[in-house]
Each structure stands twice: as structure tokens, then as C-alpha cells.
Amino acid sequence: MRYIAVNDGVDTLNKSAMDITPFRNILNEMYAADISVKIKSAYRARFQQGKFMATYAPYGYIKDPADHNHLLIDDKVAHVVREIFDLALAGNGIEKICKHLNKQHILRPAAYAVTQGATGYERHFEDNEKNRYFWNLTSVRNILRSPMYAGNLVGYRRMTVSMKSKKRLSKLPEEWEVIPNTHEGIVTQEEFDTVQQLITSRRLPENKGGFENIFAGVIKCADCGYALRAMSANRRKRPDIIDCVQYTCNNYGRYGNVMCTAHAIEARDLFNAVLADINRFADMAVNDERAVRAIEKRLTETDQSKAKAMEKEQKKLNKRLSELDRLFSSLYEDKVMERITERNFEMMSGKYQKEQLEIEARLKEVTETLNESYEKSQGIRDFLSLIRNYQGLKELDATIINALIDKIFVSEREKMADGTVQQNIKICYKFIGFVDELHITPTKRWTALPAKYCMVCGVEYVPGSAISKYCPECREKIRKTQGTETKRRSRERNKNVCIELSAKNDRLAKIWRGSGVVYTHQRMDFLMLLSNGVRIVIEIDGKQHYSEGDKSSPKLYSEMVIDTRELQLKGYEVYRFGGYEFMNITESKRMIGDFFEKLFKKIFYLERMVFSDKDCIQR
Question: Which of 31-35, 153-157, 606-610 has the lowest mean pLDDT?
């Protein structure tokens, strides 16, 4: 193959011109790499300035006609984005949001982009026009995960490996680069953060019984930190589904009491406790200013005293840094004027530099601690202003829980000295965290049922289940009567079976010859009637079962086999022994004992027998 490059004057047939070609290739590659670095630097500089540089605006936005690097809200579809976030805040999952959008027949983002003049998306709708209105999980998830909708510019979500490769590796959301407040957001930053928390935690909208778990992702075990799962107790029929559900520790449910205890709490108890606590804080925020100040003082008292000490330390550190700067300046002048030697200058400058680094590190810690204290004080004010809106709350839903509460910790039930049972609940509110511990008395499950009248005596009583018909006294009498009747019927049934078998045995065994009765082969030498309808026939076959005199008889053997088969078809278990097995008394006793022991083990009857192995052998 011959290669010719006219511009570079390269011809593979000219060996002298080929000597410089490898070096030219290296220089060209270095030039391309240098251009790549410069272009990336230019793009990053524009990104740091908050300029949007993509070809098309994201769904819900349009490019500003006056400045294409700035985004404006698209009023045509912004309400769709707002609705998606509202549904997520209400506790709906991504799949449920997709179904809701598909029912409304809304154009998906790619189809809407085509209507705005975007190219490259038509291939998704060429075969099926319905695809224009089909929202998939990825589209909804990308909208809910994108910080763009909170007014922030996001970039560098996928990075190229090198200029030679077109592969782009995806980065985790926490590794994305975000420039805040570059354009108007469709949702607030608080709403966006809440949605991220809800998406991260695994949630089930409702269980098989139809119970809506509004505390999903929020309620935790106080001891092991695992989530508490909602469990339906189907044996307890209640008019309200919430009275059929209790929460238990997921760690306990998986591994038993080796890892944790149940931490069971009735859903109704938890609902009432949280609702009452929210109303208490809401009433306090509106009507009791003194109590509000008391809570604020209690929550920030330690922080305020610590903050004052931190502020003093911060001033002291800043003052010392200024002194070190002056000392460095003076030290440098002394060196220039040759007032100190080079050795002394290096020694003193090293000492000052070490002290300066230590002060800067400590100053950074103090500043971060002070900022956290200020944020906590601001958080208390934000919480009080938020919870005022929920005064007089009657019902709870997932939106309210996610707006007010970060976590709910449930402890194990404790039996007090007076015999009562108590359970503690810790509610960590947003902005302020944990305030007070709630102490509740767990509700007994049967107390939720209304009183009934006994169908026998008419006495009013509290039922233990929804299907209860009789009071405790009448129930015991009825159980005894039913038990006696069941035993009588069982004895009568067994008696009839024995009579029927005896008659059948006589019909099969008797063969009349002349004036006498000859038993050619005995039927049912032993019959055992056991519980659960188990019937066992034991036969000992002598010479008369298979021979006439000293001559074997296939006819007699066939009759014996036919009779055995009929008994087995009737449901009997037939065990046959040969008469020769009983010639030796000692061996026969051992053989019979082993047989019965194995037989009883087989039918799970050994533990109910009242006689010992020795008695068994003797029998």
C-alpha cells in the first residue's frame, strides 16, 4: 500500500521523507491534545459562569431569545413538571406517576421536543404513533433527579475517557457539578431535596390489603436502625384497614430475635401519636409564644454558649494570623537588610509557617461549627413558620409526613412497675431534629371491636374476634358438647367398620366341604384400628395358604393374592408373615418387636402408645 500526503510532502516510496514522519505524527497528536485541553477549559469557564451550553433546553424550559445561554420557563409544559413533583411529594412512586401521565395523554419529552423543532427523535415514533404519548420510567426519573428544575445548572454528569475515545462514563448524582441559582426554578430547592430523599428510600405505596403506608421510609427501629414494615393481621377483621395493621422491625422479621426484637406498634397508635404531636406544636406556634421561646432556648442553649466561645476563639485566631503576616513581613525585611542570617531566617519562617497552617485548619473548623449553629437557629424559625400551617389537623397523609418529619424511632415495649405497658416514640422533625420523647400505652388488639350479644344466653360481651358468636361461658359449654358428639360419632363409625369387616372375613374364609367347615387361608388374623382412619391387617400365612397337602397350589396362592389386593384397594395396610418365621420363639419375639417399632414410627404413633417395648414384644 502506498500512502501520499500532499500537504506534508509524504510519500511512502521516498524513504528519506519517511524518516521525519513518526516525529510529525507525535507533534500532531500533541497539538490535538493541546487543542482538546483548551476547548475543555473554555467550556468549563463558561459553565462556571452559569451559562447553559446544550443544544436543546430540557423539558419544561426554553432558551432565552435575548441570551441563548440562559433558560426561561416554558409555560406550555411547566405545569406537567410541577405535577410530577407534586405526585412524588405525595408519596407516589415513579411507576405510578408514569401511569398517571399516560392516562392524561400528554406528549412525552422527546415528542414535545420534535414539535419545538428538535431533530433526531422521529425514529422513536415512526412505527407506532402511540409512543408519542407513552411516558417511561427513565423520563420521569430523569426529571425528578435533575437539579435543573430547582433553578440550578448541572453539568459534567458524563466524562470522556480521552480525546481518542468517544466513550463517556456516567458519574453518580453526588459527583455532578452544580452551579446554584442560574435560572428560575419550577420547584423550590426544599421540594427538590425532599423528593430526592423519597426516591432514595424504598417505598411501597400500599400493601395487598389496601393499606396506604404513609410512614414508609420514615419509621425506624430505635435499637438496630432498620426500617419498620407494615404487616396486615388478616385474622383481625376490622371496619377500618388501619386497625388491621401493625409495624414490626424488619431486622426481626428477617432473622428473628437473634438480631433484634419485634418493636411492634399498632398503626392506629402511631397515627394518633404523630397527629397529636403535630397539633401540639402547631397550637404552640400560634398561641403560646412563651412555650416557643422555651423550646428555642432549650434547643439552642448549648449551641449559643458554645457559639459565644467559638466567636471569641475565631477573633483570637484571626488576630494571630494578622500578627503572623506582620512577623513574616518584618522577618523578610531583616533578611534583606542582612540583620539575620539565612539559617535563622529559615528556622523562624518554618516555625511561623507551621503555626500559620495549624491556625488556618482550626479556623476552618470553628467557622463550620458557627455556621451550623446559625443554621440551627434559622431552622427553628423555619420549622415554627411551617408548622403553623397545620393547626387543627385532622388527618395525616404522606405529603404532610414528608414535609415535617425526617425520622420516627420506635422503641420496644416496656412493662412498668405498676404492671402497665409503655412504649416510647422519638420524632425527629425537619430543621430542628428531636425535641421530646412520646410515651404511649399500646392498644390491645381486641379492644377495637364493639361489644356483642351472645346468641345463646343474650349476655353482652366483648368479642375476641369479629366472627365470635358466643360469650366465654357458653363457648366452653358448646365446645364440650361438640367434642363429646365428635367422639361418639367416631366410635360408632369404627364399630360399623369392624362389623362390616368381620362379615366380609367370614364370607371370604369359609369354604363348605361336606358336613364340616375348612379354613383354607385365614383372613385378618389381626386387625388394628388406629386414629385418623388408619386400618392395619396382619396375616400369618401357614401351609394351607399356598398348598394342598404336600403339593403347592397356584390356585390357593392366587386366591390369597386377590384377597390381599381387595383389602389394599379398600384402604387397609396389609402385612403378611410366613409361619416358618415363628418356629424359633426367641427370634420370633425379636422380629415382632422390631416390626411394631418400625410400624409405629412410620405412622407417627410411637409416642402415643401406653405400653413399652417390652410389652410390645410380649404381645
Answer: 606-610
First to last CA, the chain: 105
User: Where a domain ends, among 479, 506, 533?
Assistant: 506
* 494 lies in the same domain as 581: no
Are residues 352 and 278 located together in one domain of the fold? yes
Contacts 24+ apart (CB under 8 A), 498-502: 498/527, 498/529, 501/527
What residues pair up with 232 in beta bridges, in sequence order? 245
- Strand 10-11 to strand 4-5: parallel, antiparallel, or no bridges (unpaired)? antiparallel
Digit-coded pLDDT (tens) for 174-214: 888 889 999 999 999 988 988 888 887 655 555 556 778 88
* pLDDT of residue 84 exceeding 90: yes
Residue whose C-alpha cell reads 422527546 in the numeric block: 110
Whether 248 and 352 share a structural domain: yes
Tell me, yes or no, whether 474 and 578 share the same domain. Answer: no
Lowest mean pLDDT among 87-101, 180-194, 372-386, 478-492: 372-386
Q: What DSSP string runs through 361-397?
A: HHHHHHHHHHHHHHHHHHHHHHHHHHHGGGTT-----
Quickly list DSSP for 205-230. SB-TT--B-TTTTTEEETTT-PBEEE
Q: Do 56 and 74 touch, CB atoms closer than 8 A?
A: no
Residues 381 and 409 in one domain: yes
145 vs 172, 200, 405, CA distance in Å?
11, 10, 21
- What is the number of alpha carbons within 13 Å of residue 100 lying toward its C-beta? 15
Say yes or no: 186 and 236 in one domain. no
Domain count, the chain: 5
Mean pLDDT of the chain: 80
Q: What's the domain range around 539?
A: 507-618
Domain closes at, from 173, 200, 227: 200
CATH of the domain at 122: 3.90.1750.20
pLDDT of residue 29: 80
Flag whether pLDDT at 422 surpasses 80.
Answer: yes
Per residue in 336-386, pLDDT (tens digit) is 787 888 888 888 888 888 888 888 888 888 888 777 777 666 767 777 778
Question: Nine-digit cell at 238?
Answer: 376490622
Is 60 exceeded by the pLDDT of residue 518?
A: no
Q: Residue 480's closest CA among 491, 492, 488?
A: 488
Whether 460 and 376 share a structural domain: no
Instruction: Tally helices (H) and strands (E) across the chain.
Output: 16, 25
- Element holding 406 (H helix, E strand): strand 405-410
What pLDDT sits at residue 614? Answer: 42
For residue 602, what is the enclosing H or E element?
helix 585-602
pLDDT band, residue 237 (cuts 50/70/90) = low
Nearest to 105 by CA among 141, 65, 134, 73: 134
Helix, strand, coil shares, percent, the chain, to 5: 55, 15, 30
Q: Which of 361, 348, 363, 354 is nearest to 313 (CA)?
A: 363
Partners of 63 in beta bridges: 71
CA 202 distance to own-chain centroid: 5
Same domain, 12 and 93: no
Note the pLDDT of residue 230: 87
Instruction: Please list, in sequence order, all residues whose beta carbon lies within 8 angstroms of the beta carbon of residue 348, skipping any fewer than 6 positions away.
Output: 331, 340
